[in-house]
Here is the input.
Amino acid sequence: VRRALLWAGVLAAAGCQRPETQVDLHIFAASSLSEAFTALAPGFEAAHPGVRVRLTFAGSQTLRLQLEQGAAADVFASANAEHVEALAAEGRVEAARPFARNHLVLIVPLEDPAGIESFAQLPRARRLVIGTPQVPVGAYTRQALLRAEALYGPGFSAAVLSRVVSEESNVRLVRAKVAMGEADAAVVYASDAVGGAPVRALPLPDAAQVPAEYWAAAVTGGPQRALAEAWLQGLGAPEAQAVLTRLGFEVGR
Amino acid sequence: VSPPRGRWPVALAAAPMLLLLALPVGALLASSSPSALASGVRHPLFGPALALSARTTVVSLALVVLAGTPLAWWLAVAPRRATRAVELLVDLPIVLPPAVVGIALLETFGRRGVLGPALDALGVQVPFTPGAVVLAQVIVSAPFYVQSAAAAFRRVDRDLLLVARTLGQGPAGAFLRVAVPVALPGLVGGAALAWARAIGEFGATLLFAGNLPGTTQTVPLAIYMALESDVRAALALSLVLAGAAVVLLLALRGVPALWARWHAVRGPEEAR
Here is the structure.
C-alpha cells in the first residue's frame, strides 16, 4: 500500500508540472466582450508561443470588486471608464486606454409579446429587466431613459422603471431574460444583438442614445506585466479592430 | 471507548477540519465593528430585504409543513416498495444545484414553460414575483422537512395508534392526537432545517424570481448585490444572517432536549 501511495504521489507531482515555457495571461473582461476577446485570444497565443490566454467574463463592477480583493489578473477591460478610473485611482491598474465603443439598442423577444415597435412604446411592456445601477449597461440604460424624457415628456423614465421586474448583474443575463421570452424588452449593447441571440433589435432615438466606451488597463504588479502591455497594444492593431467591428463594436475616431 | 493515550492522534487529525469550519465564521465576526454594523443596517437595501426574507420564509415554511406533513406520513406508513421511488423524488432538490432548480422552475412556470400559456390565460404571472421567491424556497427546503418528519413518523409505535383507534378516535384523530405529538421533536427539527435552507436560498431565487429590491430581493441576494456597491453593507447583512443561523441552530439542539425534559416531568415516567 505504501508503495502504491508513493507512486500516486509521484504521478500527481508529474501531472502538476507544466512545460516550462507555458505562462498564463489572465484577462478580466466585461461580459459584452465575451465573443470579441474569445476571438482575439488564438491570434495572441499564436503570436506569443508558450502563452495561454485565460479569459474571465463578468459584469465590470464584479471584476473591479475582485481586483480590489486582490484577484490575480493581468488585464482588466471594462465597459465604461468609471470602473477603470476608480481602480487607477487606487493604484491597482495602470496604462489605461479606450479601445472600442458601443451604443445601446432595444431588444424584444422574436414573438414580441408586448407589441413593442419603438423605444417610445417601452412603457407598454409588462415585464422589463435592466442592469443593476453598478453594472455599466444598467447605468447607461438609466441615462438613456432620462435623456428620452426630452422626447417623450417627464415621467417616461419612471413609467419604464416601474415595469422592471429584475436587476441583473451583467448585460448577458439581461439579454438572456429577453431571449427566454420572460422579459418583454430590455436595453443592451448593439454588439449583444449581433450574432445568434434569438432577439430582435430596435434602435434608440439619437437624442436618447448613450455612447459606451470600453477601457482596458494593465493590472499594477500583475504576474505578466509585459504580456499585458502586448495585449493592450494588440487591441489597437488593425486585426483586432477588424474583429471588434465585425462583432458590432465601433473603433477608431 | 478508546484509552486516553489513543485519543491525542485522533484529536490532532480532527483539528484541521474543525479549524477550517471555525475560521470563516470567526473572520466574519472579527471583521465587524458596531459602527460598521450600524451603517450596514442603515443601508437602503437592508430593511426591505430583511422584511421580504422574513415574509417569504414564513409563508414557504407554512406551505412546506401543511403540504409536507401528509406526504411524510404516507412515506412512513406506505409499503416500502411504493415509497422508494417517491423518496428519490423528494431527495432530488437536495442534490440538484440551485441554479438547475431555477431553470427548471422557469421551464415550468415561465412564459414558454409547461404551465406558462395556461397561467397567462388566467392572467397569473409567477416568475419575478414574491410568489416565485416562495415557490423556490418551498422546493429547495421541503425535502429537509419531509425527510425528517417521515423519519419521526416511522418511530411512532403503531400499537399506540391502534389503542387510540380502539378508544374511539378516527384515523385523523389518531394521527393528530397521537402520531403528531409523539413525532413533534422530529417535525420541529425538520421545520427548522427547512426554514434555514429557505432563508439561505440564493441560486434558484436569482434565476426564477429575479432581483428587484423590495419585491424579490431577499437577504442573500441583497448581500450579493451590496458587495458590488458597499462592502460594509454586505458584511452587515452577512452578520445578521449568520446570527439568525446560530440562533436557529441553538434552537434546533435545544428544543428536543427541552421537549424531552418537559415530557419527563409531566409524562408517565415521572415516577422514575
In short: Residues 268-272 of chain B have pLDDT under 50 and may be disordered. Chain B touches chain A through 21 residues (CB under 8 Å). Residues 231-266 of chain B form the longest helix (36 residues).
